Amino acid sequence: MEYRVKVTPFAFSQLQETVRYISEVLLVPETAAKWLDVLQTSITSLSSMPNRFPLTEEQPWRERGIRKLTVKGFLIYYLVDDVHKTVHVTAVVYGRRDQISALKELHD
Fold first, then answer.
1. Measured in whole angstroms, how far is the alpha carbon of residue 47 from the centre of its chain?
2. Which tens digits make up the pLDDT trace of 75-101?
3. Which CATH number fits domain 4-104: 3.40.640.10, 3.10.20.80, 3.30.2310.20, 3.40.50.300?
4. 43, 48, 58, 69, 83 from 4: Cα distances, Å
5. Does the model's pTM come out above 0.85?
């Protein structure tokens, strides 16, 4: 059975900010568009077998069921609701960033 994939407003704003940074600061809008396409494809793929990716190692997010998927140097954090067959993408974080600080910004 397929899962619905929802991107939280927080994760959506992170995607927008990264696209803006790549386009306007680094001045490579083509790269920003390609990056966004790859991430959107990866996020959409979570509709099928979302539990195939591991739980994050960091606590207390691991015990809350937060999983992560690595794509193009970024980590996509998400929560699977098996009862409602829904995946909630909660954050999209640059892989070299301090992950604990990034996870503390997550909204429950």
1. 13
2. 999 999 999 999 999 999 987 766 777
3. 3.30.2310.20
4. 11, 9, 26, 17, 12
5. yes
Of 3, 4, 15, 23, nearest to 77 by C-alpha is 15
Contact 38, 30 (CB under 8 A): no
Question: 99 and 93 in contact (C-beta within 8 Å)?
Answer: yes
Q: Is residue 108's pLDDT more than 60?
A: no
Tokens, residue 39: 């991430």
* Number of residues assigned to the chain: 108
What's the first-to-final CA gap in the chain, in angstroms?
A: 26
Q: Look at phi and psi of residue 7 and say left if phi exceeds 0, alpha if psi is from -120 to 50, else beta.
A: beta
Measured from the Cβ of residue 69, the count of other Cβ atoms closer than 10 Å reads 20
